[in-house]
Amino acid sequence: xxxxxxxxxxxxxxxxxxxxxxxxxxxxxxxxxxxxxxxxxxxxxxxxxxxxxxxxxxxxxxxxxxxxxxxxxxxxxxxxxxxxxxxxxxxxxxxxxxxxxxxxxxxxxxxxxxxxxxxxxxxxxxxx
Length: 128
Hints:
- By secondary structure, this protein is mostly beta strands.
- Helices cover 0% and strands 48% of the residues.
- The radius of gyration is 14 Å and the shape is globular.
């Protein structure tokens, strides 16, 4: 499975931005993958942002600081996961990575070591 993230850019505080992550290779099994966005700000550890569990669960989970501003969604027909980011803040500045994993239990979802596949990252810069 290969993941291609896109949509990053430079925006001002309060603006919106939408990220996409297209998966190639999973065939009809994409819907079974847990798809998640992580981010890594300069000098900081990579952190969980939002995740969408695969078939059988189909639940969404968010980092507390983004849950009222970001929305994760997926289109299984297009093998794509999205992250709609509204009311962006300078502290949202980071490289955003999408990740995919299978057979993931809820308690593992926020752990980056649980994921088998990673996209290349897309930079989001929010100016004040």
